[in-house]
Every structure is written in structure tokens, then in C-alpha cells.
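Onboarding guide, step 5: your first structure request.
Type a short instruction followed by the sequence, for example:

Predict the 3D structure of this protein.
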Amino acid sequence: MNFMYYNMSYLELIPEEFFCVYADSNEEVPCIPDDFCDNPELFSYRANYDLDNSYHNWVEKLDLTCRPSSQIGLLGSATFAGW
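The system replies with C-alpha cells like these:
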């Protein structure tokens, strides 16, 4: 059971860096979630998976990048609540 709790932090880990493409340009620039969450000028973004702490996890699968950390933490808490 401890193995599952240890892995929970990796399943909820937000990548440290992203690449963003804004509507007024076609080039990718490094960015963080604060740069693109709720930004109407953003065309697209993707995580930089070349970094050691970037994983294909629940953040990507459930589109949690722009969600508050309290909501992401509820996923791990649901295990203890018996979900």
C-alpha cells in the first residue's frame, strides 16, 4: 500500500517548463503555467518532457495544468476517503 502513496506524488506532479505558441507568432517559447493559464493570446502549449521531472501523468491526461493545487490534491485525498 505504501508503494501506491509514494507514486501519488508523481501522478500529480506538474511539469516545470512548457513550450507556448502565442496567436501572434509561430515559434515556441519556454513558459510556465502562470504565463498561459487564462491567457486569451495563447494558441497552444505543451510540456517539455526532456526535463527529468516531467512525466506523462494525470496532470496531462486529466488536463490539470491550470487547476489550483488544492483541486489536484483532492485526487490523492480521495484514496483515503474510500473513493
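Each response can be followed by summary notes, for example: The helical segments are 2-11, 33-36, 58-61, 69-81.
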